[in-house]
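Posting for a labmate who doesn't have an account.
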Amino acid sequence: MSEESPVEHFEHAEHAEHAAFLGDPFLTRVSVTIAILAVAAATVGSLETLETASAMGDKNTAVLLQNQATDNWNFYQAKSIKRNLYAIAAANPGPAAGDFKKQAERYGEDEQELFAKGQALEHQTEEKLRDSQGHEHRHHILTVSVTLLHVAIAIATIAIIVRGQRWPWYAALALGAIGSIGAAYAYLA
């Protein structure tokens, strides 16, 4: 996750403002590039944070669903034991054999409902884990993308410092493009 200062983008804007006062059209273009890269970096950094939060939220939900599934399976086993006990009792002749058989059937119906609910909870758990993995994957791509954007900003600033050499600006444009494409790829892949 990107750890940047809340005023970092103001610092980039200040560098750009200083370059604009020099009156050189190239340095003005570099300054505008820095501003655009700063906005892109802030946006991608925010998306990265959102993906991290979504990954953690989905994992927490998966844990809660798995706990519910475990509780459900325990309840299912208890019903199964009771059904088997009543089935054994119903198999022995006696005045309560009919009642025991009805109880065994009732617990058998409960068992079926609990089995279906347990399977549904496990399916939901697996789905949330897959969702979490997707968010983590996007987070990793966005981390690389925002890093490239920050490096592009730093390199573009070098073009201002060295008073008009174009190679740092070209390098910044290339890195900015790669970082932006990477951020888009995170949501397309």
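Reply:
Got it, the structure tokens are right above this. The two ends are 20 Å apart (CA to CA).
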